[in-house]
Here is the input.
Amino acid sequence: MKYFGQSAFFISSIEYEDNWHIFARMTAAVLAGFIFALLMPIMRRVSLGRFAILNSLLPLSLFVWFASFLFSGLEGNLSSHLEWAFGASLSFKLDGLSLIFALLITGIGALVFAYSASYMKGNPYLDRFYAYLSMFMAAMLGVVLSANALTLFIFWELTSISSFFLIGFKNKDEASRKSALVALAVTGFGGLALLAAMLLMGAVTGTYSIEAMLLQPDVFASSPYTTLILVLIFIAAFTKSAQFPFHFWLPGAMKAPTPVSTYLHSATMVKAGIYLLFRFSPVFTDLALWSNTLMTVGCITMVFGAIHSLFRTDLKSILAYTTISALGTLTFLIGIGTREAIIAALVFVVVHALYKAAMFLIAGIIDHHTNTREVTLLGGLRNAMPLVAVAAFVAALSGAGIPITFGFIGKDLVYEATLHQGNMSLWLTIIALVTNILVGVAGFIAAIKPFAGRLPDALNGTKAPGPVLWFAPILLAILSLILGISPGLMDHTLLIPSLDALAINTDGVYLKMWHGINTVFWLSMVTIAGTVLIYLTAKPYKYLSGIPAKLNMLAPQTIALAMVGSFAQIATAWNKAFQSGHLRYYVLISIITILAIAAAVHLPGFHWHFDWSMIRSVAVYEWVLVVILIASVLFTVFTDSRLAAVASMGVIGYAICLIFVIYGAPDLAITQFTIDTLTVILFILVLYKLPKYLKLTRTRSKLRDGAISIVFGTLITAVVLDVLSLDRPVYISSFYADNAYLLAKGKNVVNVILVDFRGIDTFMEIVVLAVSAIGVFGLLKLKVKRHDV
Here is the structure.
C-alpha cells in the first residue's frame, strides 16, 4: 500500500515494506512539533522577523500528509506500535475519527502559524511563542493518534502544560498569569481523573490498547468499576471541553494572544474532551449513565453558554461563550448516541472549527487595528477592511446556519437528531432551537456589528490589514461556502471513515444541501427568522451586560476560587502545626504515624507465638552483649556529655557487629563496623564545632518521648517475633541462592544481591552517602561572617 510521507518540510511518496516504516512516519508526524520547539533557539535568527511566516511550513507539511489519506484511503486504519513497559507502548493509529481532528489541528495550525507572523510581529519572545505553539500542536496530535491509553494520558497532560505557557504568554500581566493557573488547575485535575480512568479500564480489560478495550463492551457492562470509570471520564472530558460547571476557565483564557485563542479554543484543545467522548462512545453508548449524563450536562452547557454570550460586550468573550455553547451541543449529541446524532456531531466539529476560527482571527484583526474589542465602540469597519468584512459576514452566516454555508448543513443535522428521540423529541428540539437562535444572534453581534453602520470618529484612519492577516479568515470562509454548496465532498473522505471507526452503520450516509420542505426545513426557517429578528430589533448587550456582575457570587468560578482559598487556609494551618522547623518533631510525627499504621494492621489479629524455650538456648556471652546494649542505650539517653553519648552509641554499634559475627554474618559485621566507625568520627567532627551541651528539653517532653519510644520498640519487637514464628515461603531466598552464581557469576550471595540484583539501589545509596559527606564537609568548612546591624 502506498502512503504519502512527511519529512521535515517536504512531501514524498514512499512505498512501505514493513511496519517499522509506518511506525517511523507516524512517530515523526507526532514528534515533529516537539523537535521543532527544541530547535527554535537555534533557528531563531532564520525563522523570525520577516521570515517568521516560514514557521507555518511545519503544520502545513503535516496537513498535506494527513490530507493525502483523503484520496488514497485509509482502508480501515493506519497503525504503528512499539512496546515499552508496564502495559504502555508508543503506538499510534490513524482512522477516520482521528483524521478529522488531525486535519483540524494541522490545517488551522498552519493558518494560525502564518497569521501570528504578522499579528505578533515585533514581539521579542516570538521564538518562544512558536515553540509553545508547536509543542501544543504535537501534544494534540498525540492525543488524537494515540492507540494506547497510557500514552493518550501523557499527551493529554502535555496539552495542558503547553496551553498553560500559551495562555500565560503575557507573563508580566497578572490577569494572564492567573488565567493560565486556573486553566492548568482545572484541566490538570481532569488529567488526573483521566489517568485513574485509564488505569481502571486497563485493570478491567487486561490491556491498555484502546482498540482492544473497545472490543469488550460486555466486560464493562458487567464490571462493578464501570460507574467509577464513567465518572472519571466525565470529569476528564468536561474539564477539558469546558462543560458546566467547569466552563469558567475558558473565558478567562481569552487573556491569551488572539492566535492562541483561535487555535486552542475553536479547533483543538477544547475539542480534546469531545474526541475522548467520541473515541469511547462505542463501548459505553448503551449505558444509561453515559447517555443521560452527557445529554443533561450538554443541554445545560449549550443553553448556559448561549445565554451568557448575549451578556458580553468584548468580542473574544462573546466568542468564548458561544464556544462553550457549541461544545455543549457536541456533548449533547454524543449523549444521544444515535446514528443521526453522531453524524450531526462529526459534521458540527468541522462546521464550528471553520466559522469560529475565522471569527477569532477577525476579532484579532479588529483589536490589532483599532485597539479595542468592545462591540459598543465598533462599527463601519467594512470600508476600512472590506475583505475581512466579507469573511466575517460568511462566518456569521455559517454560525447562524443560513443556507449555502456549511453551518446550514450542521444545523439541519442537529434537528434531524433531536426529532427522532421519541417522547423527548419535542423538548430536545426546543432546546436546540433556542440555543441556535441565541448563538446566531451572538455571532451576528461579534462578526457583523463591527462592520455595519457608521464608522465612529475614534476609528477614523483605521488601516486595512495586510494579506498575511486577512488570508486565513478568507480561506476559512471560502471553505465554509464550498462545503455548504457541496457537502458531499465530506461523505467518503471524512464522514464515512469516521463512522466506521465508531462502529456505526454507513449504509445510505450522504450529505446534501437540500432535503425538501419538511419539519427540519421549517425549524431552520424559524431559526433564521428568529436570529435576524432579534439582532435587528434588540440590542441585548446594552441592557444585559450588567447581569453577570450581580450574579457573580453564584458563579462556578467564584465558588471554585473560594474552595481554593479554603484549601490554602487549611494548608497554612497544617503547615503551622506540623512544619515547625525542628527535626525532632518531624521524627516524632513519623514514628507516631508508623506506630499507628503498624498497630492498626497487626494488633487486631495479633497472636503471641514466642517460643520461650529459645531463652534457654541463649549463651552467656550473648546475655553479656544484651546487657551491654541495654546499658549503652540508657547511658546515651541520660548522659549530659555529647562526647560520652557518641561513644556509647559506638558501643551499641560494635555490640551489634558482634551479634552478626555470632550468628554467621561476618560480611554484615564488617560493613556495620565500618559504617559505625565512620559515623562516630563524623559525629565527633560535627560536635567539635557545636556550642557546649545545653538542656533545652523539658521533663514533660522527655517523658512523652520516652513513652512513645518504649511503645514503638515494644510493638516492633512483637511484630518481629510474630513474623519469626510464622511458616513463611522461602522463594526469594532460594531464588538468590540458586541464581547468584548462574546469573551473576558470584559465590557470595549477599554481595551478589548488593552489586547485581540490587545494583541500582546500592548505587543510589552510595550517591546519598556521597552527597551527605559533601554536605557535612561543606558545613565544616563554612565560616559565617557576622555583620554589625
